[in-house]
């Protein structure tokens, strides 16, 4: 279908010269107009029906829904560029004004544009008038203020804060709506002056507010404080941040402030502080209990035929009372009991079970039981009395007179023997304690040499996420070999070098390390018995 531009010339013709002359004249007028205005000429089909409007002139400040400004809008077609207009009463108003010449005002007009599947609404006040053979449209977007006000109200609500203004010359006070809600005050009662506000403040906080008010009235800079006020019979914590604006002579004119109700935040902060204090007290208690249950000697010490070094390293958690333990003690017959173990879990329950196991093993050793008998009895006790407890253990008995070591272990990593710079595993496995009531254990026996090092530890030393214990054992053996290679045989430095090389692989688990070094020439150092 053929279309023409302008005021209904004959079908198929365009009065381009007339349109051009009118455009120039209208544009000259719009160039000096403020705000948003456009002049469009009709596009008609062969029957003379208006099918669209073509923008020919635009004011410099004009802006459309898409952000196009001024001359960027020239050449746009209304229905083509803003298709949602076609089905609205606004389009019918355009047609009526073109037909009758009587201007119309259309307000409010809500325009909806869909971008990326999301509708965007804008509200306009529109005035429509016929000018020459075209349509002069002026518009004001009147939802910007509303949107800003809505955003501010939403921000105040989410932050539970409001703003206020106190004029020090006229005495006028203005509060935002949220400030009334924070203070449980009816807006009909009006806002409070600074003097009136001080009557709400808790007596202990009144000096804070008085000092701040004095600073503001003297023209001081921004100041922040926190006070408690009574609202509906309960205390609320209010954070106030305000400053004064000054005139040319430096005299204060107005105080502008923001008040925020932080009662919930303060309550939570106080609860967290209380929990932190309680946890700290519990940590100190557990640390004290750990030392009582299993004292650790920081420096190497002597037992019959052995130099001994031990270390206990708790897990890097708040609840660090763990189930790992060790024992190294001289027995009545001159032998030495060496043991390490691990009770599953942590906390007081694990520590309690650990203490019982450790003392039971020590008592059975003094009753002259060998390591296999000790673990056999201990396993039956666990299955009967503590079926909820699972544990691992490595128990050894050293006879210094002939340097004989008898040992066995229950589900525990094997002991390492370092001879010179060579490191090997002493394997004699047994099942986990607390699983099978009829489990039995047997001992392995080895004759040690002077300067041999026996390394016993719990699994936190070698257990690492993503790898198995055997890989950890290999890495630990390699580290010990590297640490011992440069040190001369017989040196006490070998014992310390091994301790330094025993770096835990898993900081989330507690770790015990027990290292013993056979003294030279089968020497027996009879020291006072340690009660461990």
UniProtKB/TrEMBL annotation:
* This protein's UniProt keywords: Hydrolase
Q: Which InterPro entries match?
A: Bact_Sigma-Reg (IPR052016), PAS-assoc_C (IPR000700), PAS-like_dom_sf (IPR035965), PAS_fold_3 (IPR013655), PPM-type-like_dom_sf (IPR036457), PPM-type_phosphatase-like_dom (IPR001932)
Q: Which GO terms describe its molecular function?
A: phosphatase activity
For this protein, the record's SMART domains field holds: PP2C_SIG
What residues does the PAC domain cover? 221-274
Residue span(s) of domain PPM-type phosphatase: 307-518
State the name under which the record lists this protein.
Serine phosphatase RsbU, regulator of sigma subunit
What organism does this protein naturally occur in?
Streptosporangium canum
């Amino acid at each position: 279908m053929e279309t023409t531009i302008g005021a209904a010339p004959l079908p198929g013709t365009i009065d381009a010269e007339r349109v051009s002359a009118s455009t120039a004249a209208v544009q000259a007028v719009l160039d000096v107009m403020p705000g948003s205005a456009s002049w469009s000429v009709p596009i008609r089909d062969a029957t003379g029906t208006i099918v669209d409007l073509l923008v020919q002139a635009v004011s410099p400040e004009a802006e459309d829904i898409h952000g196009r400004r001024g001359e960027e809008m020239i050449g746009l077609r209304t229905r083509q560029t803003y298709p949602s207009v076609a089905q609205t009463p606004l389009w019918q108003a355009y047609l009526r004004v073109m037909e009758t010449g009587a201007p119309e005002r259309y307000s409010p007009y809500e325009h909806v544009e869909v971008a990326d599947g999301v509708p965007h609404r804008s509200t306009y006040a529109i005035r429509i008038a016929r000018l020459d053979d075209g349509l002069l449209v002026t518009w004001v977007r009147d939802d910007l203020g509303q949107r800003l006000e809505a955003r501010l109200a939403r921000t105040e609500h989410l932050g539970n804060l409001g703003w206020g203004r106190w004029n020090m010359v006229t005495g006028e006070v203005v509060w935002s709506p949220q400030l009334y809600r924070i203070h449980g005050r009816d807006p009909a009662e009006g806002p409070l002056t600074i003097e009136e506000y001080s009557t709400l403040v808790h007596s202990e906080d009144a000096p804070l507010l008085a000092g701040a008010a004095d600073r503001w009235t003297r023209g001081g800079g921004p100041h922040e404080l926190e006070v408690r006020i009574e609202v509906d019979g309960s205390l609320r914590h209010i954070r106030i941040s305000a400053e004064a604006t000054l005139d040319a002579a430096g005299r204060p004119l107005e105080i502008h402030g923001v008040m925020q109700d932080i009662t919930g935040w303060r309550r939570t902060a106080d609860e967290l502080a209380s929990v932190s204090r309680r946890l700290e007290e519990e940590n100190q208690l557990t640390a004290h209990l750990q030392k009582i249950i299993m004292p650790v000697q920081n420096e190497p010490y002597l037992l019959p035929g052995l130099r001994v070094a031990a270390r206990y390293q708790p897990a890097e958690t708040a609840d660090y009372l763990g189930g790992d333990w060790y024992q190294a003690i001289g027995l009545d017959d001159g032998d030495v009991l060496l043991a390490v173990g691990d009770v599953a879990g942590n906390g007081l329950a694990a520590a309690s079970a650990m203490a019982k196991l450790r003392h039971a093993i020590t008592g059975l050793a003094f009753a002259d039981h060998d390591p296999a008998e000790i673990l056999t009895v201990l396993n039956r006790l666990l299955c009967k009395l503590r079926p909820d407890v699972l544990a691992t253990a490595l128990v050894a008995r050293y006879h210094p007179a002939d340097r004989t070591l008898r040992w066995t272990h229950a589900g525990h990593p094997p002991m390492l023997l370092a001879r010179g710079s060579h490191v090997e595993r002493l394997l004699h496995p047994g099942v986990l304690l607390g699983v099978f009531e009829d489990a039995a254990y047997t001992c392995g026996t080895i004759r040690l040499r002077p300067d041999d090092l026996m390394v016993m530890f719990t699994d936190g030393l070698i257990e690492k996420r993503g790898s198995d214990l055997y890989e950890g054992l290999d890495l630990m053996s390699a580290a010990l070999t590297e640490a011992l290679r440069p040190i001369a045989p017989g040196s006490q430095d070998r014992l310390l070098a091994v301790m330094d090389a025993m770096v835990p692989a898993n900081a989330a688990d507690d770790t015990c390390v027990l290292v013993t070094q056979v003294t030279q020439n089968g020497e027996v150092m009879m020291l006072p018995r340690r009660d461990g």
